[in-house]
Amino acid sequence: MHDEYNGQNPALTELRERLKGGMARMRLNQTDLAKRAGLGRTTVSEALSPAKPAPSPETVAALARALQLSVEELRELRRSAAEETRDGVRSVPGRPIGKWDPHDLEVHPAGPTDTASGPGRSGARTMPGYVQREHDRVMAQVVKDAAAGRSGAVVLVGGSSTGKTRACWEAVQPLAERGWRLWHPFDPTRAQNALQDLPRVAPHTVVWLNEAQHYLGNRSAGEQIAAAVHQLLVTAECAPVLVLGTLWPEYASRYTALPAPGEEDPHSRVRELLAGRTLTVPEAFDAPALAAAAALAESGDRLLDDALSRAGTDGQVTQDLAGAPELLNCYRHATPAAAAILEAAMDARRLGVGLHLPQAFLTDAATDYLTDTDYDHLSDDWAEQVFAELAALVHGKQAPLRRTTPRTRRRPPAPSPAVHGPAPSTAGPVFRLADYLEQHGRTSRRHLCPPASFWHAAHTHLTDPDDLGNLVRAAEDRHRMQWAHSLRHRAADHGNIGAFHHLAAMQEQAGDREGAEAMARQAAADHDNTSVLLDLARMREKAGNREGAEELLRQAADHGDTNPLYHLARMREKAGDSEGAKVFAGQAADHGNSDALYLLARMREEDAGDLKGAEALLRQAADHDNTRALVDLAYMREEAGDSEAAEALLWQADDLGNTHALGCLARLRGRAGDREGAEALAWEAADLDDTGPLYDLARMREEAGDQAGAEALARQAADRGNSGILVHLARMREKAGDRESAETMARQAAADHDNTTALLDLAVIRERAGDREGAEAPLRLAADLGNSDALYRLARMRELAGDSEGAKVFAGQAADHGNSDALYWLAGMREKAGDLKGAEALVRQAADHGNDNALCSLVLLREEAGDREGAEALARQAADHGSTGALWHLVLLREEAGDREGAEALARQGANLGSPDVLSDLAWMREEAGDREGAEALARQAADHGSTHALPRLEEKPRIFTRLWPYGLDPDGTPTTSW
């Protein structure tokens, strides 16, 4: 039987749903439809019956015309249904958008639930009318593009309960009418489901990644998920698909932040995926949105009318609708025991514990949040009463703390080494804190360090290695070193590899080599991770203990990891010990490490000139699919005159995925004189984002005097979206003295391809050569094309030439285009002229455009003018947007002026705005001034905020905590005794 409702044939399900939808829209029964379509009633009945096979293409076309539906789209569904029938079971993720309840997609509920509900349903819930805002209009265009066949993605970034998920739901409604599906990956976990099923997503599917941090931020799978989503978006066979996600700002900032030099880059693929695809959702309705909401309320929308009565002034309508104020009231008016449980949950989430909080942990953690009096009044069943109290629903159908049941696995885990199963389950019930209370806790409690019961309960009850690792860092950031040490041991016991690394390194540095080795062996044996052994080996090698390093690396190799041996070979080579390098590379090669074979081959060629031996080793590496070895072997074959063998090796490397092999082939053909073949291969390489061969060909033609050929190649590349070669040729012409041709090519790159880089480059080259007049010409061209930086450069050049009036003209034009540097420069000119009021107006404009220097200057101007209140307001505004420079300068001014209380107050304000480093800076200054008591008070506040490991503005700052409290602090802030 062909029953599409068993999930076996979603295309056939969708085809029949659309036919039935058309009948409902036109109010036709099967008899009426048969007459309109010119078909027999039995034919129509079978076409609509789930117990019958797919109707014929002719029947589908007749029904589509009768129902005024797209014949082409329904025939395509029929073809897909037929393919699925032939291929057997081939289900695809998701179901029709119209079959989803928005609340099942995590749209925050609002208002009462209808009492009538069927089995398995939570009841029909009324949603308030929807108010379109700017982000909705941008999303609508992305959805329109998807409907037209172009895949796209949008991630909405905004605070809790700002309407992100509802915006996504409203955005996809036009696609529901076109028969699109929607897939929300969540079972057995969000990350596992996404990683497993993303490759199976079919065209015309919305991928729903609500709370995308659970996918993209997953420690083991986040990068893979980002790569899989990117692959889905760029794969033509999958198009069109639409990926929608939501994120809180702190997660978006974390994923898009560039790592400091030398640090790991854990979110590189996520950052690439989010680039150009995020859209900010404002915290509050602006005036037009409030007016639109009021109009809906006046027309009878009771929910909006009720929300506007409370949120009409601050504009936080969505938060009100989601129940945020009631949640906050529940917390503020909770019994002492309930408030203690909530605060323990808030602290757990803000310090990095996962969503599901064990009841046993919360119960034990809460005790020190209570006063002695409240603790003494606890009844025997106090915990049971509190959890019942906090489970009560508030306006918006949310509970402050609700019990959750983590989903169990329904299929065997995939054999992928990158996706680990869930952490060992914690005995007993688990609870989840309401989103709004979680975010409220992150701000209202950021200045507090949790009490001792919190840390003890975490050590006793938590088992997730990532949760424990996060708490280790949180304890260290707050200088609670004894708890950090204990939790690190607990984290290692549960498989946190970072904890193993740290503990082993500590033991090694303390001289306990046996303990360090035991720790490293435990990580390898119990958790299949040899990286701790590798780290210890590096430490011993660096200390000159080669024998000890070798022993550890052999242990790692015994666990199947040959990379340590290879790395030691590289270390020996860099140290000049080529013989030692060969020994370790040979051992790694004996274990099948192709990189080691490659290293040995290079050493044979460079040290002994043994080309034949090197080639033999490269062939061994190539046999292990080492594509770099294949490319090197190809070069050796070419040098030996065997171009045919070289080309065959490069094609083999290309087949194995070496992204540079095509480029090497192009260069090989070019050197052989095969101009046409070289160009064809260069274009293929360019299609794979390797434009190096095109640059090389253009340069070769230019250097050979074939300027026309070089230009033709550059123009073709620009026409295909790569104008960089035009820019490159323009630079070459300029340096060769052909200024006219260079300017022509730069103008073409700018005018035809919106790339003004070449024009700016020409200006720089001419200015460095002392030709300021010549430099102005390309800058004028760039300015005419809307590049405000060019206008600002012109202004600075005129200033250097002594033409202050001309400089002002160009700076003014740049400022009119929103160039903040030009605004700031003009402000300086006005200040020099004595126009302080005009200078301040321009500085404010520059600050509004994100110029931090301008904001600092404006703060100082206000302070110098005696407007302390205005200066503070501006500094707070800057700190609230992540720029603490102005606040720091203001603190410094107050401190130097002897206003210690004012300096402290400002530093605390900065900490409350998320910049606690200002407190630790001030503490350092107090210590330097000999005020140890004042330094301790400020440093303790900074520690409670978690800033002891923040990036220092003052080099000595991190050491102040160790100097003041060498053994750390207890949770209550008292110095820890020796331990």
UniProtKB/TrEMBL annotation:
Pfam family, one: HTH_3
InterPro entries linked to this entry: Cro/C1-type_HTH, Lambda_DNA-bd_dom_sf, Sel1-like, Sel1_AlgK, TPR-like_helical_dom_sf
Positions of the HTH cro/C1-type domain: 28-74
Disordered: annotated segments: 79-127, 398-427
PROSITE patterns: HTH_CROC1
Gene Ontology terms, MF aspect: DNA binding
CDD domains per UniProt: HTH_XRE (cd00093)
SUPFAM superfamilies (UniProt xref): HCP-like, lambda repressor-like DNA-binding domains
Transmembrane segments: none
Compositionally biased region (Basic and acidic residues): 79-89, 98-107
Protein name listed in UniProt: Tetratricopeptide TPR4
Organism: Streptomyces roseus
